[in-house]
Amino acid sequence: MKLSILGFLIYLINITASLGQVQETAPGTYILFLTDKNNTSYKLANPAQFLSSKAIERRTRQQIPLDSTDLPVNKNYLDSLVKMGLTIHNVSRWFNTITIKTGDTSLLEKLNKISFVQKIEPPQTFKVRLNNYTESLNLLSNEEYDSVFYGQSYNQIHVHEGDYLHAKGFRGEGVLLAIIDAGFNNYQGMTAFQSAHDENRILGVKDFVDHDGEVNNDHSHGANVFSIIGGDMPNMFQGTAPKANFLLLRSEDATNDVFGNQNEYLVEEDNWISAIEYADSIGTDVINTSLGYSIFNNPSQNHTYADMNGHSTRISLAADKAIAKGMIVVVSAGNEGDGSWKYISAPADAFNVLTVGAVNTNLARAFFSSMGPTFDGRVKPDIMAIGQGTKLQNIYSQIVQGSGTSFAAPVIAGLTACLWQGAPNKTNREIIAAIRQSGDNFATPDNFYGYGIPNFKNALLALNPDLYEHKGKLMAFPNPFTTQLTLQHEALEENKITIELYNATGRKISSQEFTIEPNRVGEIELTNVSALHRGILFIRAISGNKILTTTVLKL
To answer: Is the pTM of this model over 0.90?
Structure first.
């Protein structure tokens, strides 16, 4: 039976009145906060019950202990709710919550009397925007390619020296990257992913909205994002991590309601939390997400700028929890830079995620890219990538260009996977720090560009100096340093040595000549280093035809 708009509003008013303080803002959907995980069959001593071997290895490698948040929600509690006639929509082990659906509001009264239910909250209505500037998704004309192999995606990769990572053999092999989005329409038929299918590198798909087991018939946004990372079409188009393994996870409901409006409910945040927890359990290394949450449909329930402090929204807390579990989370900053909101949205405000803003192909900030700082004064966005005129593949296997910070984020997510492949013994926090510190604006971060455009070659060399093509040995200590720096060099035949310092952008910032004793290992004290800007520094020691190099970090 169809209801008139007036009839529908009267229905909602009656529902609200019958539930007292519980307001139904997502039709028939509620969040249950549970009291405990007592008497569960799962044990921290046996993590293989609930985590994959890859997830356990990721924790072990980074010395991350298991805790009670890793334990799944008590199955006995779930079974009890199902027996009551409730539908389990999603669960969160990190927050110990259950999202339920029911059309029988009388059951809510019974839930308040159940001992293991701490409280009931409705998912409040919100406004979410896929972080892409959809007015610009255009077919491309033929153009001259800067690189035959990369085709039309060369510029967005080369600006970060991502092609250096690929040339070193780091194309994402063995790294598991999860994309959390609104759907991956026709990813099974797009030519960009043919090699991923042929090589069985799409390790799983999961729908946290409809729970129908597939994501191929949903929104196309995730497929566009996937192509920026995983596209593999030699001489036409390359993604930033074309040989990574992938999980495709749908958390956002981009369908419309009976009135033609997009379904916009806070339940999507809880879908997202369930998706990232699932990604954790499978063993994911890097997460890409291009969803942002800020303005609610009901003004009384809006997120405010004051909420963008990293700990006021559940989704931002979950994003940081994912970092604590050993993953790297890459988030689009949002597209509100030219609107009334202006600022980054959740979870882009989370403390330890890599928040990515957009620049155009001339490397100037895109007008729509959301700005920082967070309400508590932290630098956001963290870094920038091409997000205006980004090359991608559409669902018809055409190479097009699109604009939005959600197309900047996957550029970085893929290169992050390659970087971690090149420095596998580093922790997620070390990888994140190296990316930030390689930004061309690291010395003077601001609210528009953050730390700037990262250079992944420099980040790799900072994490793994042995990859640098150099002759001989040059050591620097302490590393990192603050006020003093000593260099130790191998025996050299000449009696003169020139020490050059370069910043992360490759600009020479100092040059000094020293007299040394030939054919003996020596040490050189560098002076006036306390005044240098923070960040990665490259050191070249030149003596005759001999060149020694090393990398240091100034704090």
So the answer is: no
